[in-house]
Amino acid sequence: MNRSIVVTGAASGIGKATAELLESRGDRVVRVDIRNADINADLATIEGRAEAVALLKESLKDGVDGIVTWAGLGGPVGATLLVNFFGTIDLVEGIHPLLLMSTAPRVVVTSSRMSLEKPNEEIVALLLKRNLTEIVRRYPSSEDPTEFYCATKVAINRWMRHLAVSPDWGGRGIKVNAIAPGLTETPMTRSTLDNDVQRQYLLAMHPQAENVLSQPIELAEIARFLVGPESSMLIGQCIYADRGTEAILRGVNPF
Ligand SMILES: NC(=O)c1ccc[n+]([C@@H]2O[C@H](COP(=O)([O-])OP(=O)(O)OC[C@H]3O[C@@H](n4cnc5c(N)ncnc54)[C@H](O)[C@@H]3O)[C@@H](O)[C@H]2O)c1
């Protein structure tokens, strides 16, 4: 397609599949990851995020057509907040001037089916206020394996919808959307899926999966559409690519 697209988390899993798919369609892809990428940067740190933005501005002087942010962590540790939330918003906001140079600019960020769970609203509110100091003070560590993860994905959805209709983004033609994958077979989920009990539990949370786990390429296809010019009518949408989990949780079960 000849578009230039930034893909974060491009060294593994869904991000890798997205980068490869876009390249196979003729796009120029700039990969960002902690290692094995065009731009190696630790998105958990302020310095790493600033360096990534500076290098993107240097290598994409004529602008960029889109960014897909798959970089993320699945665990309870504090780095989950840093990479999933700040690693997304700082990069997207940092390349705003580059996106404005495109005729069909797109932003695609990563949520999760976990965004359907009830989050810790205090953490979500503090994330949206970007008050990391207060989060660290109130939550020096989290015992709950999903508390931080769920909060980041809910916060990303709210930030994404706000951006999508704000004057500086949606108002200037930048289409902003999200993808919320369900259970997908990647290095992130491998250790859990290798454990028989955990695997059965996770599959039970995805009743429509019928023992079929989503593959990275399936999510990559959705990202390819959203980051392409064809998605122009989608604004502020979170696409739940979850084999029916959202429909069931919202109470629509015709079976
Ligand atoms: N796999 C699933 O079932 C699933 C479900 C819902 C949402 N997601 C989301 O999809 C995204 C991609 O997940 P995946 O399953 O492909 O995982 P993955 O572990 O295969 O890929 C994540 C990538 O993020 C990069 N990353 C992590 N920390 C980083 C840091 N500090 N700086 C720079 N890069 C860093 C990793 O190096 C890796 O390449 C994540 O945001 C995840 O939360 C995944």
Mean pLDDT: 93
The helix/strand series, from N terminus to C terminus, equals EHEEHEHHEHHHEHHHEH
The CATH homologous superfamily is termed NAD(P)-binding Rossmann-like Domain
Note the quaternary state here. Answer: single chain
Which spans have pLDDT < 50 for at least 5 consecutive residues? none
**Structural class computed from helices and strand pairing:** alpha/beta
CATH class placement:
Alpha Beta
The bound ligands are:
nicotinamide-adenine-dinucleotide
Q: What CATH architecture would you give?
A: 3-Layer(aba) Sandwich
Number of domains: 1
The main pleated sheet reads as: 7 strands, parallel
Kindly state the number of beta strands. 7
> In which order are the strands of the major sheet placed?
3-2-1-4-5-6-7
Radius of gyration: 17 Å
N/C terminus separation: 42 Å
What share of residues is helical? 40-55%
Total helical segments: 11
At the fold tier of CATH, the topology name is Rossmann fold
Beta-strand content bin: 5-15%
Large-scale geometry: globular
GO molecular function: oxidoreductase activity
Protein name: NAD(P)-dependent dehydrogenase (Short-subunit alcohol dehydrogenase family)
Pfam families: adh_short, adh_short_C2
Family: Belongs to the short-chain dehydrogenases/reductases (SDR) family.
